[in-house]
Amino acid sequence: MKLQLLWFLTSTSLAFAGHSRRTARQEGIEKRGNAYDTCMNHLVDDTVSIIENRLPEGASCLESFKKAFETNCLAVNTNKPSYDRKMSVDVCINEEVKQVTSCLKAAGIKEEEVDMVHVDFDEFKTHAFSTDASIGCSDDA
């Protein structure tokens, strides 16, 4: 009887300890996720602002990109562990850049100007995924 009681108490303690560790880990990911969201949104705002200044006729396409980025890229991936989040957001950005490219071309933006938009978004990704905390949003550093 004492052995059963000891086994029950031990297994219960271990179960709660595992749950506490998982909960603490997820809370840490969520806190970093909020900081990541803020950082990424600032970088997107800066990039879109630069492009809009150069191509005001593409403003509606770029605003659509910002909304899609926030809902399709960040909202879905923010609270994932860092590596998974980075990979998923990178794939999502590539998809959203394809969409904005199509929109800009449909709006009559010249191919050379669309190519410059790609350069801007490549620079955005370089900054966003940099492990240098002074320029990037990665928490891997």
Helix proportion range: over 70%
Question: Ranges with pLDDT <50 over ≥5 residues?
Answer: 22-26
In total, how many beta strands? Answer: 0
Q: How far is the N terminus from the C terminus? A: 52 Å
What can you see in these coordinates?
The protein has 141 residues and is an all-alpha fold. The protein has one domain (9-129). It is built from four helices and no strands. Helix 2 packs antiparallel against helix 3 (82-106) and helix 3 runs antiparallel to helix 4 (111-128). The N and C termini lie far apart (52 Å). Mean pLDDT is 84; it is low at 22-26.
Question: Can you summarize this structure?
Answer:
Residues 1-17 form the signal peptide. By secondary structure, this protein is mainly alpha-helical. The chain is built from four helices and no strands.
Topology of this structure?
Blueprint (H helix, E strand, L loop, with lengths): L1 H53 L4 H19 L4 H25 L4 H18 L13
Helix pairs in contact: 1-2, 1-4, 2-3, 3-4
Keywords: Signal
